[in-house]
Amino acid sequence: MLAPRIILVITALTTALVVGADALSESRRTAIVTAIEKVSPAVVTLNVVEYRRERYVDPDFWGLFGRRYRTRDRAVEGIGSGFIFDQNGHILTNYHVIQDADEITSVTLPGGRQLEVELVGADERTDVAVLRALGRDLPHIPLGTSEDLMIGEWVIAIGNPFGTMMRDPQPSVSVGVISANHRRVSREVGGGDRLYQDLIQTDAAINPGNSGGPLVNAKGEVVGVNTMIFSSSGGHQGLGFAIPVDRVKRVAEELIQFGRRRNPWIGIHGEAVGELAELTIQQLGLTVSQGVLVTEIYRTAPAFAEGLRPGDVILKMNGKPVDHPSEMDFINWDLFIGDEVTLETSRGTTNRTMRFRVKEFTE
After folding, report:
1. Which of 101, 143, 301, 328 is most buried, by the most CB atoms less than 10 A from its CB?
2. Which one is catalytic: 146, 179, 211, 346?
3. pLDDT at 149
4. Which domains are seen in the chain, by residue range?
5. How far is the first Cα of the chain from the last one, in angstroms, to the nearest whole number?
6. 96 is catalytic
7. Is-catalytic flag, 127?
């Protein structure tokens, strides 16, 4: 009579082990794993080369008056990442990945498939470039939004750091959280010529070669483009930055439609009030200590039609305080043709608000 009981106990134990193994396997497949599986196939590795002219001594020549010098082109290789984001094969990456490249030598999918690509357009100020892969049945990644990012939510940085050292095009993955949002970076970063403002900060590891790769949320949607790090050693120190995807989408649309980013223009030049001498402030009759003093304005500028004149002080632009002309430049570069601009200004003891639409800069 014991045998049936033993069989029942063994059967129950086997069933419990199987159920436990299934539950364990299922617990390993987290949202992050699923997101990586969804996104990775569309991440590409970009290899570029720049030819630099250099001067060298001809070792086979020795003359009465010295040596002979020759020149040659030295190939300097670079690597970056990117990702296909639509059914037409458009690839997003950073401008600085291809900035000095004389040739894009290869664009490779994780499985090793080589893609033939063409440059659609690039914008230095926002550090965004769009390529297009020529081919069929290309994977692509859905673009999400950066508007509702939460501090502390999980994100995944995908790219190909130190790509050729790994000898394969399979992307690397690092996981972290959103450390800060709308991060303002000093205007000196990027030489003051790039819109490194309103960035996403993450502690997900970003290293050389990651530039241009996607920053992805737990749903497998792109929320940013990995762009830069702050580091004293050149390696990862938990301070990575990505361009928010909502800006990237608008720049990409411009590049695809026009082949370039149309230059937004408000037609104003100014100086920081805080950097003026006290005597100058008194002579101009300024009643504010901070802001941007309008020193020049074009008659064809949209702000001129609204009454802005030299001697006025701009206090805020689109609700953001401005204390230096470069801060106005950053806000302006983030605008697109037709966007509305709101200026809060001071003239003597009178403050006023004016609104106008951004125009395209033309000669």
Report:
1. 328
2. 211
3. 93
4. 40-58+73-134 (2.40.10.10), 154-258 (2.40.10.10), 264-360 (2.30.42.10)
5. 100
6. yes
7. yes
DSSP strand E in the chain: where? 43-57, 69-84, 90-93, 103-108, 116-123, 128-134, 154-159, 172-183, 199-202, 214-217, 222-229, 240-244, 264-265, 268-272, 292-297, 313-317, 320-321, 340-347, 350-357, 359-360
Judge whether 211 counts as a catalytic residue. yes
User: Which of these is catalytic: 40, 90, 96, 324?
Assistant: 96
Report d(CA 247, CA 335) in Å as an integer.
Answer: 9
Single out the catalytic residue among 40, 81, 123, 127. Answer: 127
Q: Which two structure tokens, joined as six digits, stand for 193?
A: 């010529």
- Please, what are the averages of pLDDT over each run of 10 residues along the chain (363 residues)? 60 62 71 91 90 75 67 77 95 92 87 92 94 92 93 92 62 90 74 77 85 93 90 64 95 95 90 92 90 94 92 95 90 91 94 93 74
